[in-house]
């Protein structure tokens, strides 16, 4: 981790159709944002807000129950334009790493930007931490966010599927993985066998 660079840990929650068979016309919209800003391994700022959807403003029953979110809460949120202003505020071009758990967050953000005819706000480095975790541990399948942190013997922050809590949990897993990477990268200490040619000693006393 290049601690001098800005790291944005982001989690979005999205709208979802009433059933698992997504209609062709439907696309998910961001309805909650959680953001943790880190630099020099210190948390500079966090941000949380609901976001009002535009294309499909009325939440489905499935969405409200799954996310434990109300229509009133979402209706009180910021606009998508305000969300982009927030994200842009904490973005330093070419000096920012955006970290999410999975690739859906950035995919949905891009789709929403296209819908609103707004330029995508990020030009930094993107890290899908779920793939980093998968490669690091050699897992065959991608692991869910809270299952991953529990595999470390830890618990997630707050409640699952709350954007800011999931952003903090992503940050916590990132720190654990980076710590393990540094540990494995350390050179093994030399042994007495590395410093002394034991074969010469053995031959000497064998005479």
From TrEMBL:
A Pfam family hit: RNase_T
Source organism, top-level taxon: Bacteria
Nucleotide-binding is among the record's keywords: no
Domain Exonuclease intervals: 8-183
Lineage, opening ranks: Bacteria, Bacillati, Bacillota, Bacilli, Bacillales
Keywords associated with the record: Exonuclease, Hydrolase, Nuclease
Cross-referenced CDD domains: ERI-1_3'hExo_like
Keyword check for Lipoprotein: no
Protein's recorded name: Or 3'-5' exonuclease KapD
GO terms, molecular function: 3'-5'-RNA exonuclease activity; nucleic acid binding
Coiled coil, from the record: none
